[in-house]
Amino acid sequence: MRARFGLSIMALALVACSPQAPPPVARASAPDAIYYGATIYTGVDGAPTVEAVSVKDGKVVSVGKSDELLKTAGASTQKVELKGIFLYPGFTDAHVHLRGVGEREMTLNLDKIGSIAELKSAVAEAIKPLKPGEVLVGRGWIETHWPEKRFPNRQDLDGVSGDHPMLLERADGHALVANSAALKAAGIDGRNERQPDGGRIEVDKTGLPTGMLIDNAMSLVGVLVPKADGAWIDKAYETAATRELSLGWTGGHNMSVEPSDVAHMKALSVSGKFQLRVYNALDTGGMGGKLDPATFSHEPGALITTRAIKLYMDGALGSRGAWLSGPYSDMPSITGLQRSHAAETLPLLKQAYDLGVQVSFHAIGDQGNSQVLDWYQQTFATVGDAEKAKRDPRWRIEHAQVLKLADIPRFKALGVIPSMQPSHAIGDLYFAPARLGPERLKGAYAWRSLIDAGAIIAGGSDAPVEQGDPRIEFYAAVARKDLKGNAGADWHPEQKVTRAEALKMFTVWPAYASFREKELGTIEPGKLADFSGYSGDLMTIPEAEILTVKPMVTVVGGAVRFQAK
Q1: What are 6's strand-pairing partners?
Q2: Among 364, 330, 319, CA closest to 171
Q3: Strand pairing of 304-312 and 358-363?
Q4: Cα–Cα distance between 38 and 28 in angstroms, integer?
Q5: Closest CA to 2 of 470, 562, 550
Q6: What does the alpha-carbon distance between residue 214 and residue 211 come to, in Å, rounded to a whole number?
Q7: Burial of 317 (0-12, 13-18, 19+ CB in 10 A)
Q8: Are the CB atoms for 231 and 250 separated by under 8 Å?
Q9: Integer Cα distance of 188 and 208 in angstroms
Q10: Nearest CA-CA partner of 407 in 459, 366, 349
Q11: pLDDT tens-digit profile of 495-547?
Q12: 2: helix, coil or strand?
């Protein structure tokens, strides 16, 4: 039976009329709201579930039994009856691209495409309303399930694109396919094209571009994409926040953020159109190698916090841009792409270390991860032990997908946080064995090994690369199977995590990864009142049912920001 919740108006009326229960009086100490009638997991180790939580000034006042907390209500206290749902500390997506999530909904969304034939049909339909020569931009395709078993190419698009340049980004955001019109407009139309540093222009057997551009090569066609204006940016963030809250996310660690976008988020939050709790990691591309301390802010209790930067070591495994220590098993001619180099990166890391700015470094391949760890260790060694003991950098590696076994204990030893997205494992299982081979799979998506080695994992989704649904991420972490319950025999099921660990991956561990474990991550007095409510018990129901529970209520700062209808 579907759980229901809402203000119990009838109950309030009965209480008010009862001779045994005099009307509540206004008390300065009375809570602003009481959420009651639920099974509430506080996230506190060893603590039992409770039935109710009271809130004042955006923070938790008390937890306990419903009847006891209701006695503390004042005349203006809002009583929210949850009618048997299951409430958790606010789920935080520790790796999300919020603007991209919004833009996915605002542009041609290709994440449901099942073949090259379907791709061609979709773009043929999409160009119908466009003006002559107008550029078509889309995102979300991934070829690993397609019957053609290959990347799309420019010839596939040329037959249906007319005079429209087309730029269709792969789901991972690290590759795109362009048609001939787009390649020509960008000056990529001949043999022996010069390969950009940290990128690759795929070519066919004759040496001509196929239309596939990997990582930094995508920037070659970036000039064709219309520049987003302020209204577009606002709509993208508003759309993203609405979607995130509707799924049960109360917050997100927002990656690769354009510094100018922070002002948009703050303005939207003031207007009430953006009520997601956000921790920003800024893209450093336009900073000229220098960090301005004024760019960063992290006030206690703030809805918008900016305390980190985002760097890239390599690309993605699916598009063979992840930097491996040896050749790809299914393409021995390449080892992936190194996108950052010591000469420009080490000085930036030192600036961040001295300023107390967190570094979030994208690394997917085993060589990419090893190089990041080396650079982190080198940076930390620039100060003496006494000074080092005063610092708490909490630097991160985003994705940490494929690791050398010898590097796994280095995360704990260096205090580095692996920020990982469980859904990558259930999507990549269709191609990662072929890309990596059996030996490298032993260190791939190694959640159990990292936790056992003492690391904490900040769990996220990498939306819009993945769907960005907390139910999928929770399921993937505890089941390590695809959405139909399948997994390959060589997929190392021993790397899955427990339900309690999965809850930590999306609550208290992201709080720690954003320096906010004293404010967020558990439901206990004094902490910010961020809650995620679902129709089913994620901690006990069968694995497959995790995917079917319904988001029922999302509370941020003590206020309902989403409720199921």
Answers
A1: 81
A2: 319
A3: parallel
A4: 26
A5: 550
A6: 10
A7: buried
A8: no
A9: 9
A10: 366
A11: 999 999 999 999 999 999 999 999 999 999 999 999 999 999 999 999 999 99
A12: coil
pLDDT digits (tens, 9 = 90+) for 6-59: 433 333 333 333 334 444 444 568 999 999 999 999 999 999 999 999 999 999
> Element (H or E) spanning 409, and its range?
helix 408-414
Cα distance between residue 138 and residue 423, in whole Å:
22
Q: Per-residue pLDDT tens for 388-403?
A: 889 999 999 999 999 9
Residue range 400-458, pLDDT digits in tens: 999 999 999 999 999 999 999 999 999 898 899 999 999 999 999 999 999 999 999 99
Helix, strand, coil shares, percent, the chain, to 5: 35, 25, 45
- C-beta pairs of 198-204 under 8 Å, 24+ apart in sequence: 198/312, 198/337, 198/338, 198/339, 198/340, 199/337, 199/339, 200/321, 200/334, 200/337, 202/151, 204/153
Asked if residues 81 and 10 have their Cβ atoms less than 8 Å apart, the reply is no
Asked if residue 372 has pLDDT above 80, the reply is yes
| pTM exceeds cut of 0.70 | yes
Please tell me the predicted confidence (pLDDT) of residue 193: 72
* Nearby residues of 71 by Cβ (< 8 Å), 6 or more positions away: none
- Pairing state between β 175-178 and 166-170: antiparallel
Mean pLDDT of the chain, nearest integer? 93
Average pLDDT over residues 237-246: 98
Rounded to an integer, what distance in angstroms lies between the CA atom of residue 33 and that of residue 56? 7
Is there a contact between 460 and 422 (Cβ–Cβ < 8 Å)? Answer: no
Distance of alpha carbon 416 from alpha carbon 89, whole angstroms: 24
Residue 5: name the closest of 557, 552, 551, 559 by CA: 552
CA distances from 63 to 6, 33, 396, 448 (A): 19, 12, 33, 32
Domain locations in the chain?
A: 108-224
Position 89: which residue type?
Answer: P
Average pLDDT over residues 136-148: 90
In the prediction, which pLDDT does 320 show?
95
- Which 3 state secondary structure label does DSSP give 122? helix
pLDDT value at residue 270: 96
Q: What is the pLDDT of residue 18?
A: 37
What 3-state class would DSSP assign to 177?
strand
For 5, 474, 549, the CA distances from 546, given in Å and listed in that order, are: 20, 8, 6
**For residues 90 and 520, what is the distance between their CA atoms, to the nearest angstrom?**
8
- Which of 118, 321, 95, 210 lies closest to 138, judged by CA? 118
User: Does residue 176 sit in helix, strand or coil?
Assistant: strand
- Which range is least confidently modeled, 22-36, 91-105, 325-339, 531-545? 22-36
Decide yes or no: CATH 3.30.70.120 for domain 108-224: no
For residue 168, the cross-strand partners are 138, 177
How far, CA to CA in Å, does 123 sit from each of 110, 136, 151, 422? 9, 8, 16, 31
* Model confidence band, residue 210 (pLDDT cutoffs 50, 70, 90): very high
186 dihedral zone (left: phi>0; alpha: psi -120 to 50; beta): alpha
Give the Cα separation of 115 and 141 in Å (integer).
9
> Token pair 């107008």 is at which residue?
134
